[in-house]
Amino acid sequence: MTEPMMINLALAILFLPLLGFLVTLLFGKRIKSIYTFEIAIIILAFVGAVVLLFTKLSYYQNTDIVSQVSWINLGNVPLLGNTTIDIGILIDNISVLMIFVVTLISMLVHIFSIVYMEGDRLYNRYFAYLGIFTFSMTGIVFTHNMLMMYIFWELVGLSSYLLIGFWYEKKSASDAGKKAFIVNRVGDLGMLSGILLLYTTYHTFTFSQIFSQIAAGHFPLNSEFWLTVTGILLFCGAIGKSAQFPLHVWLPDAMEGPTPVSALIHAATMVAAGVYLVVRIFPLLTSGALMFIAVIGMLSAFIPATIALTQNDIKKVLAYSTISQLGYMVMGLGVGAYKFAFFHLITHAFFKALLFLGSGSVIHAMHHEQDITKMGGLRKKMPITYATFLIASLAISGIPLTSGFLSKDGILQGSFAFGSLTGYWIFAFVGFLVAMMTAFYMFRLLILTFHGEPRDHHKYEHAHESPFTMAMPLAVLAVLSIFIWYTPNPFNPEQGAILSNWIKTPQLVTPQDSRFNFMKSELPANVAVQQVTQNSEVMYSESYTQALEGAHIPSLLLSLTLAGLGILIAFSFYQWKKVDVDKLADSIKPLYKLSYNKWYFDEIYGAVFVGGTLLLSRALAWFDQYIVDGIVNGAATVTRAVSRFSGKFDNVVVDGMVNGTAYVSGFIGLIFRRFQTGKVQTYIVLVVFSLVILLFIFK
Amino acid sequence: MIQVGLNHFLVVSTALFALGILGIVTRKNAVMVLMGIELILNSANINFIAFAKFGNFGFQGQAMALFVIILAAAEAAIALAIVLNIYKTFSTVNVDEIDTLKD
Asked: Which of A203, A314, A423, A535 is deepest in the core (most CB within 10 A)?
């Protein structure tokens, strides 16, 4: 396959879901079975993605294929210089891997939804929305520049709003949609500022051009500090989209959407976009920006994990576990474990989609019951769901032979190495702690849902295994959660092609003195730039490679022990009931309440931001009512006084003059009318009289 | 014996003129008013003839007096016709009551 063919294939994958969206939306009302078109489209896109994946990785493994066109040419713009905006697509190993994940999960979600959404009022529209969601995410994956990234980024925001608020008759659902949209805007503001900062500096949106200019020593506002700021601003977009602390609050609420949508959002499309963005901009991140990212990732891994320990809603537990796992990826990127972080994005996509679809299967079987305290014993009724859910739980807990073990252990290994090289052990410490908590809450969920005796017999009686179209996606994802697809050695992911050949740590373009010590290149700068274009593997330094190797065994043992411990505790609490959980919760009541109430984030944000806005608006209303209205009313009063005076003047002086004139004329008339008797004799007397007077005057 | 001179004529004519004016102004009957006008005309005639006799004008004064007499006759005819018409319109010849000119 030639490069132009691959470009065309990529464009086809990009625009097929859009076509599906438009057709399904336009004919959705008239043709009841139009959703099959959308499903066919997505299967086609998936087949295309598979072809693209294999072609790229077999024949063009070390070549990036870029195709760009000049979209807008503004000529010479004052202050900006020569302004052209290019758009284009970039096919590299990362984008083909990502597009495979996106289209695969999107396809499985489509198939799963056929039964799950059956009988919904807006059945066809639901599939149309899935189509545009896939289209938006595909655009993010294929873009080779920041502008297109931002456009599709916002499209993802829009489609998430449409799907989270899909059951908009429910107030909580429409509120959740709005919340997701608005909270995302907060992060997007930072991202947009970062993009604009980059554009004003480099006059281009294209990643590779920006990177090569940074490598040539050209920084925003001519300072390395602003390079750090730019990195952090761009990362703000990821904080919003990937639901990182402190903007994670939208994600648990997003559970109001249909469950397959949750699977799509949490595995393949929306939250993955944030991590993907950081992966794309990774080369320009300075040590300061990386530190910021690592801290945010650590907090996002830790806080939601503690919340997930006590939640009783099956989807809420999974939602918080998603934030926690995304925190892992972000932290992994922050500590420089680029390959493992991206690897975790892929493996997590599969098992998290599996968990959500599994929970969807359970919810469907239990007639929309989501409270795990009312479930139990479903293992016998739903063997396929149980088996796949178990595999996903093992994967997310990091148990060997699963994909999750490989990638999660990689991140922990990376943070361990980071600790040993820089002395910041906190990331490794929190990472391992979260690994234990993850194992605990996942198995708590599994045991409460599937093991033990049914707690709600009525619902249990009606529970049933899901039909083929729902079970098949579960099976596919469960198979993909096994280690064998990624590496032949279940304990060393680096032996697999995906980490050794496909994903490669990109060469940093940041100046040497704004990197962590271990990231400093041992090659001259110009050679390093050369290597970016050749796309060959670049490790940071010898010391890092050694530290990573040294961290392998201890982190592996530690994470295994902790995960095992977590599972053991979960079993002893909920399966064997060795410990009375309620009593335990009572004995650490403040901590339990903190976790159960989600660290009061919603309450705090409600008080600070919503309350603050209300307070501000009240103050402004007061200002409006008393100050602005006062000025207006004052102006009116003054005008009235002036007009009253002017009215008086008009009445007295002007009218007085006019009336006076009339009065005087009347008076004169009154005198002279006496002469006008109408009697000829009077006139004659007057004539004679005047004649006599005239005679006396002119004698 | 007093010699009759110009002044005597003028006094007579003035008296006649004054009487005429008085008649016009004071009389209520339109016919009497007309008679006053005749008196004025005749006072003028006296003036013409007096100035003709004592001035050096030849016969021009007498001629003018003849014209005035003729004019007076014509005037009297027309004026009487007017009076008749007034009587027809207002059913009176009392000039005090005829004041529609005022309107």
From this structure: A314
Residue B98 touches partner A, C-beta closer than 8 Å: yes
Q: What are phi and psi of A328, to 5 degrees?
A: -55, -50
User: Closest partner residue to B25 among A676, A678, A685, by Cβ?
Assistant: A685
Q: Which of A281, A196, A295 is nearest to A231 (CA)?
A: A281
SS3 content of chain B, % helix, strand, coil (to 5): 80, 0, 20
Of B25, B96, B101, the CB nearest to A684: B25
How many residues belong to chain B?
Answer: 103
Say how far apart CA A539 and CA A545 lie, in whole Å: 7
Task: From chain B, pick out residues whose CB is under 8 angstroms from the CB of A688.
Answer: 21, 25
Which pair of structure tokens corresponds to residue A544?
Answer: 């890092």
Dmax (CA) for chain B in angstroms is 58
Nearest CA-CA partner of A107 in A346, A293, A269? A269
pLDDT for B84: 92
Instruction: Give per-residue pLDDT as tens, B16-64.
Output: 999 998 988 888 888 898 899 999 999 999 999 888 888 887 888 889 9
Residue A523: what pLDDT? 56
Q: Name the residue among B25, B26, B100 with its Cβ closest to that of A678.
A: B100
HSE (CB half, 13 Å, CA atoms) of A416?
Answer: 24
ipTM over 0.90: no
Nearest Cα neighbor of A112 from A354, A442, A403, A391 is A354
DSSP A70-93: EEEEEEEETTTEEEEEEEEEEE-H
| Residue-level pLDDT at A534 | 42
Q: Does A695 touch chain B (CB under 8 A)?
A: no
Q: Which of A116, A240, A109 is nearest to A167 (CA)?
A: A116
Tally of residues, chain A:
699
Instruction: Answer whether B95 sits within 8 Å of A684, measured CB to CB.
Output: no
CA A109/CA A111 separation, integer angstroms? 5
Instruction: Inspect the interface and report whether the beta carbons of A678 and B95 lie closer than 8 Å.
Output: no
Q: Which residues of A651-683 are buried (b: 16+ CB within 10 A; e: fewer)?
A: eeeeeeeeeeeeeeeeeeeeeeeeeeeebbbbe
For position A43, what pLDDT does the model report? 92
Q: Tell me which long-range contacts A197-204 makes (C-beta under 8 A, separation of at least 24).
A: A197/A221, A197/A226, A197/A229, A197/A230, A197/A233, A198/A146, A198/A230, A198/A234, A199/A146, A200/A80, A203/A80, A203/A81, A203/A82, A203/A83, A204/A86, A204/A145
Residue of A nearest to B99 (CA): A678
Higher pLDDT: B93 or A535? It is B93
Interface membership of B33 toward A (CB under 8 Å): yes
Look-up of token digits 């391992």: A432
φ and ψ at B94, to 5 degrees? -80, 115
The per-residue pLDDT for range B58-88, each reduced to its tens digit, is 888 889 999 999 999 999 999 999 999 989 9
Ranges under pLDDT 70 in chain A: 80, 268, 521-540
What is the model's pLDDT at position A521?
Answer: 64
Instruction: Name every residue whose Cβ is closer than 8 Å to that of residue B72 and which is 6 or more positions away in sequence.
Output: B38, B41, B42
Residues A406 and A413 sit within 8 Å (Cβ to Cβ): no
Question: Using CB atoms, which residue from A677, A684, A688 is nearest to B99?
Answer: A677
CB pairs under 8 A between A and B: 29
Which is nearest to A248 in space by CA: A257, A256, A238? A238
Is the confidence at residue B14, as pLDDT, over 80? yes
Q: Which two tokens stand for residue A512?
A: 């040497």
How far apart are the C-alpha atoms of A332 and A228, rounded to whole Å? 18
Cβ count within 10 A of residue A423? 8
CA of A664 to nearest chain B CA: how many angstroms apart? 22
Q: Residue B38: CB partners within 8 Å, gap ≥ 6?
A: B20, B72, B76
